[in-house]
Amino acid sequence: xxxxxxxxxxxxxxxxxxxxxxxxxxxxxxxxxxxxxxxxxxxxxxxxxxxxxxxxxxxxxxxxxxxxxxxxxxxxxxxxxxxxxxxxxxxxxxxxxxxxxxxxxxxxx
Length: 109
Hints:
three-stranded antiparallel beta sheet
C-alpha cells in the first residue's frame, strides 16, 4: 500500500484553488515526460489521447480527489496540462407562448 502523501511529495494542498472534480485536463504533447514522478507520468499518459476530468483521472489512478488535485496542479504549473472549466451552455430566454401551450396541454389531460 502506498500512502497518499507519497504521490504528492508530502504536500496536502494543490497550488491552485480553481481545480474541481469537473475541471477538464488537456495534455500538451510537446512537453517532455522525462523526469516526471510516477503519478504525474501516469496522468500525462491518461490525458495525452484526449481530454479527461480531474475525477476521471482520480478514478484511473485509484487516488483520492484531493491527492489527484495536488498532482494535477503541479502539472498545470509546469505547463504539461491545461485546465479548463467544463462547458456549460448558457441558458436561453424561455418562450412564454410555448410554456403557456404546454401548460394548456397539461391541463387538458
